[in-house]
Amino acid sequence: MCRRAIIIVFGNDRSVTHRVHEVLETLEGVPSSSVEPVPFTGGSTTERCQATFQEVDGGFSTGAADSDGFDPRALDGDVFAVVAPADSLDDIPLDRFPHELHATPTLAIARSRTPERYREAFLHGADDVFGPHTGSADEDPLREALRNAMDRTNRRLPPIAVESLRTVVLDAATTLMGAETDEVATKVEWTLENVGTSADLDRIVVYRDVDGMFNPAFAWAAEPLRPDPRAFESFPSPERLARFENVVSGDISTEKGDSDVDGPLSSVHVPLVSEWELVGVVVFEVETPRTWADAEVDLYRTLADLIAHMLARNERRRELRQQAERLEQFSTVVSHDLRNPLNVMAGYLDLAADDLAPEHYRPTDDALRRMETLIDDLLMLARRGDAIGETEPVPVRAIAEDAWHSVRTPRATLAVVEGLGHIEADPSRLRQLFENLFRNSIDHGGHGVTVEVGPRVSDGQVIGMYVADDGPGIPSDVRESVFESGFSTAGSSGIGLAIVARVAEGHGWTVEVDSDGGAIFEFEFAGREVRPPADRAVHEA
C-alpha cells in the first residue's frame, strides 16, 4: 500500500505556494488548478502515490491533531519536504519538530539572491535556499530539489537531524561509560531507543558472537520485535564486516546477489570490535529506501564503539569479581587448612624443645617461622594486592622502627638517616613495605646485615626515600625481575618484593632497584609533600 507524500508549505506567502504547485505539476505532467492532490511516481514505476500540499499559516503544534496549530502526526502520509519563505524561517520552531520531520529537508525561498539572505536562511535551519525564479517551472532549481525529496530511494537524514543525532550519541557516551554492571541492559536499550527515534529508524539490534552464532543481546524497534540468532554468513558482505568495515545497504554489490538478502530495504551493519577481534554486529534498519549520509554512518560506528568498550569493561569487571571470589576461597584455605597443621607442629616443637639439641631445634623452628611468614605474605597478596586504605601524614622513621621490631633479626642493625620526616601514606601498608624489605635484606645479607633507611633529596627537597643494605647486592641481569611474584635468588617465596611493588604502586610511588655494595631500593613519592626531618637513630636487634 502506497502512503501519500506530503509537501508542507509554511507561511502565508501565496507566491511560494504557487511556485511549489507549479513545480509539482511539471514533475508528473498532470495539470491541476488547485492545491488538491497531484499524482506523482514515488520512486517506483509500479506505484502511483499522491503528492499533497499542506498549507500552514503561523504556528506549529506538537500536540494532538485537534489542538490549535499544525500537527504532522495527524496527516495521512509521509512528509517529504518543508518549504517556507526565507524571512519566515525564524518563526518556524524547527528545533521542536518531532522526529517525523527530522528526516525531511527544509527548503527556503528567498526574495533576493544576496549573500546575507542566503546566510541568514542557513543559520535558521534551511537545508537549501532558492532565490527568485522568473523562467518556466521546468527550469526552476526548486524542481530538482522537490523531485529528489519525493524520490523514496533518495531519503536521507538532513544536516539538522544529523546534528541532533550527534548530540544523542555524545550523551550516550556519558550514559554507557557510567553504567554499573546491573544497569548495562537498561542503559543500552534506552540508548538504542534514543538513537532510533532521533534518526527515524525502524529498529536497531546488537548481535554478539557466542561460539560462532550471533545472538541478539540488545534490541529496540518501533514495533514489537523478537530477533532470532543469526549465522555470520547471513549478514550482508560478511567478509567486509570481518575486516572491521561498515556495510551500508547502498554499498552491497548486486553482482553476487547480495541485494536479495532477506530483510529491510535499507540498513547499516557496523562491526562490534574489541581488542582487535570481531565480537558482534550492530544493525540499523529502516523499512523504506534510504540514502545514508557519511556523517550519519560515522555516528553509528561511534555508538558501536561505545557499546563494545562498555561490554568489554563489564566483562572485565565480571572477571575481576570472579578472581576476587577465587582469591577469597584461596585465602580461606591458606588461613585455616595450612595454619592448623603448622600450629600443631609448633606446639609439639615447643614441648620437645628441652629434649632436642640446639642444632636440631633451630632449623626446625626456622622452617616453621618461614612457613608462617610465607602464609602471611600469601594472605596479604591475595586479600589486599595493591589496595590502599585511608592515608594520613605518618612519621617514616617510627613506621620503619616498628616494622624492624616485628622482624626477628639477631645481630642485624637498622640505621634511620635524618631527613625522612612525614609522608602521606596508609600506615599499615607502609609498615608491610618495610617488613618485606627488611626480610629480603636478612634473607640475602644474613643475620648480621646492616640496613639503612634514608631520604632522597633533589634541589634541597625530599622527593622520596631509599632502603639499602650491605649484603651481596643484586646482579644486574635479574634486577628487572625482582618485583615479579615468585622470583627469588635465595630460595625464599619470592612474594615479599612483589608486595613491596604493589604497596608502592597503590600509593602512586615509583620504585627502582640498584646495587652498590649491597641492594638499594629507591622510592619516589610522586610530588607528595614530605614534612620536616626527624633525627638519626640506630637500632640493633
TrEMBL record:
Q: Which UniProt keywords apply?
A: Kinase, Phosphoprotein, Transferase, Two-component regulatory system
What top-level branch of life does the organism fall under? Archaea
Say which species the protein is native to: Halorubrum vacuolatum (Natronobacterium vacuolatum)
Q: Could you tell me which residue ranges the Histidine kinase domain spans?
A: 333-529
Enzyme Commission no: 2.7.13.3
Q: What is this protein called?
A: histidine kinase
> Which InterPro entries does its entry note?
GAF, GAF-like_dom_sf, HATPase_C_sf, HATPase_dom, His_kinase_dom, HisK_dim/P_dom, HisK_dim/P_sf, Sensor_HK_Regulatory
Annotated transmembrane regions: none
Name a Pfam family for this protein. GAF_3
EC class of the enzyme, as a word: transferase
The catalytic activity, as recorded, is: ATP + protein L-histidine = ADP + protein N-phospho-L-histidine
Recorded GO MF terms: phosphorelay sensor kinase activity
The cross-references to Gene3D superfamilies, in alphabetical order and at most eight, read:
1.10.287.130, 3.30.450.40, Histidine kinase-like ATPase, C-terminal domain
Which PROSITE patterns does the record associate with it?
Answer: HIS_KIN (PS50109)
